[in-house]
Amino acid sequence: MDFALDADQRRWLQEVRAFLREHVTPALVAELAEHDLEKRDGELAAFRRKIGEKGWFGLNWPTEYGGLGLGPIHQHLLVSEFERWGVPGPDLTVTSVAPMIMRHGTEQNKAEFLPPIARGEMVCAVGYSEPDAGTDLASLRTRAVLDGDEWVINGSKIWNSGAQRCTHEWLCVRTNPDVPKHKGISVIIVPIDAPGVSIRPLEAWSGYRTNETFFDDVRVPATNLIGEVDRGWRYITGALDLERGALTNAGDLRRAVDDLWALAREPRRDGAVPATDPGVRRRLAELDADVEVATLMGFEAASLLADGTIPSVEVSTEKVFTSELRQRIAETALDLLGPDGLLGHNTAAAPLHGAFERLYRAAPLLRFGAGTNEVLRDVIAQRGHRMPSYGR
Amino acid sequence: MKLVATEEERDLAAAMRDLFTTHCPTTLVRALREPGGERFPQKLWEALVRAEVLALPFAADVGGSDGTLDDLAVVYAEAGRALCPSVVLNTIHLGLAIDALAAPDRRAARLPSLIRGDLRGTVAVASPYDATDVRPRLRAERTADGLRVTGRLDYVGDADPADAVLTTAAVETYGEPDEVLALLVDPAAPGVQLTPLPTSADDRWYEIVLDGVLVADDAVLGAVGEEELRRVALTVRALQCVDMAAGAETVIARTVAHTCSREQFGRPIGSFQAAQHLVADMHIATQAARLAARSAVFWLGRGRPGVRETAIAVLKAATAYRRVTADAHQLHGGMGYVLETDLHLWSERARRLGVEGGGVDVAAGWLA
After folding, report:
1. pLDDT by residue (tens digit) across A306-363?
2. Does A243 participate in catalysis according to the annotation?
3. pTM, whole model, 2 decimals?
């Protein structure tokens, strides 16, 4: 095992940091704070163009698909740095949709979708969950029926985040209702502006915007089906594992603990300095240790990916660990800051513009999202230790 | 950066696992605890010497095989799984300490016989309560007949069969700062009094009281600084963390095997989600421990002071091993509570290694 970055990886990290130092401007930070990712044609759009110019949307793709051919460790390093800086980097389209197209798509799928994804022009929302199909995703009901050379799609998706600013849906549909449920599922690419698609916003407790998206007799070319019909469950589970690995990076957690230490060393409104309390220091030390562990887990998963496997057990372990760590960080911050920790970003006196107040509301999401931790514990026990499944 | 075992590491681990399975069964571990029984695992020792395990972390100039501390970590993982007796591991610690602290001629004089299996012993350079506290407990004075050492060492492991205890003493010279010397004490020498402080699990700890003990010149290894003493103590602690993480993995495997064969209500108890989730949490904690422990050994091997890395390893490994053994008792129920199942052997090792040299509270203090 080798815990040190080699010269090439160090050089890459320096390049990513230099990019962020140059392009994460106060204007970008202000726009993200005010509009999150919703503003069109502003600082974020310019920032994404710069990422595209570096070829970083295809950083982990084979060169024959227009990518830079860099491995999972390079991707992991880049995503971690972007998260530490609090800016969006290559998203799920790049990290989990495109690899599935490369792995399982037809030649037509690859020729049609990969180039615009690489340019940052095609951005996907992932359409998995439905009102009646969340953790039990295989029971999904959105239906696609072949009519001549078109698929006709009817149904709805929920938690369809980013639909309002994407160009396409990576849509999971039922193509065969007559076989066991996970054997009749396919994935179809649907342009978001196709007639019959409508989006209803949902606002989550964390201020996060997601959507319910409806499909009424939406027609797309038959060639928009990814890979083979009825084989979609494998593409979905593969994409979910990759998504989980990308989402459970510890970059933002390193930043959070560093920021919390810095806050703890400053006087509160009442003049007390939290870091002088040994109990506070003890909690911060434990968080510091756990962030190091989360970082190592991320590198382990990336190392296994580099060897060509999708390490479901390791990614599940990492995801459970980091999501629960995020909650512990938020709780420690609240206890340490006291009432100061309740001031939101609209209050001038809020420590760090309310970052930890917001983290407390954001933390619950990743414990149930991207694979609820209870199911992932099942995966660890059943796939990691061969304990018997019990019919879920 | 590649956090996957290399082929060489896998081969070494497999070879060591075979060796320990053959020569260190739980029957040996239990026999060594019997009053009046064997004190020293002679056959295991000979197998390790034959396999050149004692040569592994040392350079060729003293008869070593030029391996790394990372290689030793692979050995320690297998040793931890098999509950390798501390009397064996303490001699490896003696070797590491001589290698790091002794003047070149002393190192060349002692290490070859250790590597051959002819020099056995133990190390006492840090507080048993805090591995970063390396203040000497002994005082030495230069007299007409030589160096005389006085003081008390607590909780020295396996001092009774030791040929040598490596420890430190402060030498006062009028008008000069104290000098700290590393030296080898023969526990059988005149003026040395050993008082057993065995744990309830029969780990052989000793209080050693020295009263003007004469230490020969060739047993004085040289003057040493605080930083190098601390690195030796933390290297031992980090290797113990590797032992703890691997021990925890073995306990999980035994627990899964039990829950998959034990049936109640017409099905294996391992098919109940509550049981699976306990195992999943044991797994997560153990993986955290394993990564943190290997990271600490890696960076100590590359010359870092290692305080931060070892703190993280102790926080994760001590917690994981203790928690895993407790949850293992829960999942084994009565079957794992009786002595004949052996589960308590890992529980006791978890308890000891979790605090020897400083447990989670002490380690958290190293970080903050």
Report:
1. 888 878 999 999 999 999 999 999 999 999 999 999 999 889 999 999 999 999 999 9
2. yes
3. 0.93
Alpha-carbon dihedral sign for residues A329, A335, A336, A337:
positive
Minimum CA–CA partner of A375 in chain B: B277
**Of A31, A81, A212, A243, which residue is the catalytic one?**
A243
Residues in chain B with CB shorter than 8 Å from the CB of A282 are: 361, 364, 368
A380 contacts in B (CB within 8 Å)?
A: 279-280, 283-284
Q: How far is CA A72 from CA A19, A51, A278, A303, in A?
A: 19, 18, 40, 7
- Tokens matching residue B290: 């394993």
Q: H-type helices in A307-383, by residue range?
A: 312-337, 355-362, 365-368, 373-379
Per-residue pLDDT reduced to its tens digit, A250-264? 889 999 999 999 999
CATH number for A124-235: choose from 3.30.1490.20, 2.60.40.10, 2.40.110.10, 3.30.720.210. Answer: 2.40.110.10
User: Which helix (H) or strand (E) segment is A185 a member of?
Assistant: strand A185-191
Q: Which residues of A touch B6 (CB under 8 A)?
A: 1
Cβ proximity of B186 and B192 under 8 Å: yes
pLDDT at A161: 93
pLDDT at A247 over 80: no
Q: Are B311 and A289 an interchain contact pair (Cβ–Cβ within 8 Å)?
A: yes
According to the CATH classification, is domain A248-385 in 3.40.50.300? no
**Fold annotation for B227-367:** Butyryl-CoA Dehydrogenase, subunit A; domain 3 (1.20.140)
State the complex-level ipTM: 0.91
- Asked if the C-beta of A285 comes within 8 angstroms of chain B's C-beta atoms, the answer is yes
Task: Give pLDDT < 70 ranges for chain B.
Answer: none
Q: What is the distance between the alpha carbons of residues B174 and B78, in angstroms, rounded to a whole number?
A: 50
